[in-house]
Design goal:
Elements (H helix, E strand, L loop, with lengths): L7 H9 L20 H50 L17
Length: 103
């Protein structure tokens, strides 16, 4: 009995081999080491999105905390000014350098 190939791949491999009955060796292309450009582009894009998101979140958090700190400093300044006024501090006394020295 003759051997019947199970699929067309075996027949194609035998037909292209230099010696009948021996399977042909697959011709390998150049071996690439490392990731493809698509993988690098996806990784770089993901990194850029992550950095941009981090910067935005940091700026928002800094802005909110700076507003809170400025509001607290303003309130403390008002309270200190009120306390100084109650204790009799003369606010015009510090403006003496605008008097006759500049003329």
């Amino acid at each position: 009995m003759s051997k019947v190939p199970e699929n067309d791949e075996e027949t194609a491999a035998e037909a292209s081999s230099p010696v009948a009955g021996e399977p042909a060796e697959a011709k390998a292309g150049p071996v690439r080491s490392g990731p493809s450009w698509k993988q690098i582009a996806v990784a770089a894009g993901g990194f850029a999105v992550t950095v941009a998101g981090t910067v935005v979140v940091t700026l928002v958090a800094t802005h909110n905390s700076a507003r809170m700190a400025n509001a607290a400093a303003y309130a403390h300044g008002l309270l200190d000014g009120a306390k100084a006024a109650r204790s009799g501090y003369d606010f015009d006394e510090d403006d003496d350098y605008f008097d006759e020295e500049d003329d």
